[in-house]
Amino acid sequence: MFGKRKKTDALEYDKSKLVPAIRSSICTGERVAGFRNRETRAFTEMMLIRTEKDLQDFKAKYGIEGDIEVFY
After folding, report:
1. Per the domain annotation, does 29 fall within a domain?
2. N or C: which terminus of the chain carries fewer CB neighbours within 10 A?
3. Does residue 47 fall inside a structural domain?
């Protein structure tokens, strides 16, 4: 009941159409992780990033390795 959480497999996203990205606010510094469409450049929010652990959780959840694009 209060044991460790089970690790789940990484969630899938269409890598040919979507790019992982972080939208960062210049004014407040708020960061939101999500996916940006390669064609339309539309951004879909998935998770608020408050700490480095949140970013690592986002990467683990979607199986992302390496750096993520940041835009303002």
Report:
1. yes
2. N
3. yes
Structure-token pair, residue 38: 């390669």
Q: Which helix H or strand E contains 61, and what residues bound it?
A: helix 52-62
Q: What's the structural domain count of the chain?
A: 1
Phi, psi for 53 (deg, rounded to 5): -65, -40
Does residue 44 lie in a domain region? yes
pLDDT tens column, 37-47: 999 999 999 99
Q: What is the 3-state secondary structure (H, E, C) of 30-47?
A: CEEEEEEECCCCCEEEEE
Residue 30 has pLDDT above 80, yes or no: yes
